[in-house]
Amino acid sequence: MTDPQQAARTIDEWNQATVHIPAVTEDGTWDVMRAVRRFYEQQRGDHTARYFAYEPHHLLAAWAEHRGSRMERHTDPVPDADPDDEAAYRAELTATRAAVATGRSAPAVFRPAIDPVGERRLEAMTDQVAAASYLPEQVAQELAAFRPRRAEREAARRQGGPDPLDQVCTWCGASEGQPCRGSFRPRGKGRTVRTQPHPCRIDAARTAMAEVS
Question: Fewest CB atoms within 10 A around its CB: which of 31, 86, 182, 197?
């Protein structure tokens, strides 16, 4: 260009349009000069294309195609950040993908095997889960009361005796197989669990046994 001002504007436009496009990538899969040469080679004998000015949008289109290929090959490696720290974990994933998309890092085509640090972290997390109790206190109390009654029920069946838990309790509404419920707990925390069934349930079991025999 003979006009210095026009040349400066053109250079500035190219810089702004292609600021995120690398000249070459470390893995050798991208080179701006090869992209320009390929553009003219693909004109298929159109000699007029030799005189077309190569515009920024041509380079942007070539890089977009190459970038899409890179991201298709990329598999996110396991971040070093603590997975419980969601913000740091996501930030590391985003940074890794951005580095691949801008040509600063080569695509990770496979997940690396877990390293010793990851093994120790996984072991510690497993120990924490094993040591933790996620069973609500109310459920734990109900199970503690129900399990002995289950053994009693099985013994009663073997001996042919009546089992109150085979009946629906007409007093508290407990269904078959469930222990009777007692008074209500404060602050809406449900009802207590009785270790013995209500008398009406025992009478119903005896009546049912008498009818069968």
Answer: 86
Distance CA 51, CA 98 (A): 36
Three-state secondary structure string covering the chain: CCCHHHHHHHHHHHHHHCCCCCCECCCCCCEHHHHHHHHHHCCCCCHHHHHCCCCHHHHHHHHHHHHHHHHHHCCCCCCCCCCCCHHHHHHHHHHHHHHHHCCCCCCCCCCCCCCHHHHHHHHHHHHHHHHCCCCCHHHHHHHHHHHHHHHHHHHHHHHCCCCHHHCCCCCCCCCCCCCCEEEECHHHCCEEECCCCCHHHHHHHHHHHHHHC
pLDDT tens digits, 103-152? 888 888 776 566 777 777 877 777 766 655 566 777 766 766 655 555 56
Integer Cα distance of 10 and 16 in angstroms: 10
Give the separation between CA 24 and CA 34, rounded to whole angstroms.
Answer: 10
Q: Closest by alpha carbon to 129, among 121, 117, 138, 118?
A: 121
Amino acid at site 198: H
In the numeric block, which tokens belong to residue 127?
A: 């120990």
Residue 173: CB atoms within 10 Å: 10
pLDDT in tens, 192-208: 888 888 889 888 888 88
